[in-house]
Amino acid sequence: MARRRLLARRRAAHDRRVADLEQALRAEDERLARIEAAETWEELDLAARRTIVETSEERPRTWQVVLLVAVCLLAAGAFAVVVGSPTDEPVSPAAPQESVNPPAESRQVARRPTHGVELPRTLEPSVFLIRSTGGGARRLDLPPAHSWQPAWRPDGRALAVVSDRGIVELSASGAGPVRGQPVWRNRRELVTMSLPTLLPAYSPDGRQLAFTVDGEIWAVGLGPQSVVRRLVVDGAYIDWSRDGRRIAFVRSGRVLAATADGEVTSDVSHGKEDISPKWAPSGRSLAFTRLEDGVLRLYIADPLGDVVRRMPGADAGAAYPAWSPDGQEIAYCKFVERNWELVVRDLRSGRETRLTRTASDESFPAWSPDGKWIAFTRDLHLQVQQ
Known about the structure:
The chain is an alpha+beta fold. It folds into 2 domains: 2-75; 125-379, Neuraminidase (6 Propeller), CATH 2.120.10. It has helices spanning 2-37, 41-48, 59-75; strands spanning 125-131, 138-139, 147-152, 158-163, 166-172, 182-191, 197-202, 208-213, 216-221, 228-232, 236-240, 246-251, 254-259, 264-267, 274-279, 286-292, 295-301, 308-310, 318-323, 329-336, 339-346, 352-354, 362-367, 373-379. It has a 4-stranded antiparallel sheet with strand order 2-1-24-23, with no helix packed on it. A hairpin with a 2-residue loop joins strand 16 (286-292) and strand 17 (295-301). Helix 1 (2-37) packs antiparallel against helix 2 (41-48) and helix 1 (2-37) crosses helix 3.
């Protein structure tokens, strides 16, 4: 009789456990659906909060459920291409330690009187999405995740970002208010290595992803056969021309043009402190960032480096250019009111449109192939005035 009662109690406890787990999973599914449907940071912050009322006894169970859901979401990227290092010991890139909420427009901060000498900060980076014509910016990653340096896939259906886990690809949602936009929930790992992987760039046909590792540029195939090859022994900031025949990259502070296989053909910038080259859609120009006389500026050059000129209107405090798909505009980061903001300049009229007005630094803009969106990095780390 005692054994029967013991078995009955264990069975009842098991049934309660199963019911608790099913309830928690349903609540987590509902929460993730709300997160995907959120259109503003306030909605996202509200959607990300737990709706399950936890007792001290239930907390460990709910945490296990959350871990299980996270593992399931990561497993959804089963078709991802995972790159192993020679030691096969995956290590995430070094990430900032502090975690803070996105800044409010009215929050008072101690801004830096750098006058555009230092590049935008990425101490607490997060990738945002904003319309190229302006409006509210939507955060793509979920707290406490970090992400930065976005790059659009040529078909516009996905966005690669550097994350705490390496390089991940966010695919576009097929339903809900965020339809057609990249969603953090729909992600797969592209590159995981024992050293930080940075500065992703897709080839124009979308079959390769280039990235920088320890001062070298590598490329991994994104098809069934994920062949990994080293493109450049000493270099960073790779960008492909639209026809896929040429690449541009930086070596020792100089912008170089090369064949798709990495054979250098010309010294484009003839500079000493140049970074972030970007091919114009026409392939006839390259824009890049230069530190000159202690100030960051934007320059445009022809692929042979015969003509190198400063971009009009970006004389001081300008960095990280990104061409619009039609080549008529350039998005870049401009030092305004003592911090870096995202702006768009019409190259024909010279008209400049400021897209962001925050207390944070914006950097690494990336224009979507259809020209409707700009993904960029926002530093959420604030130096609050004491």
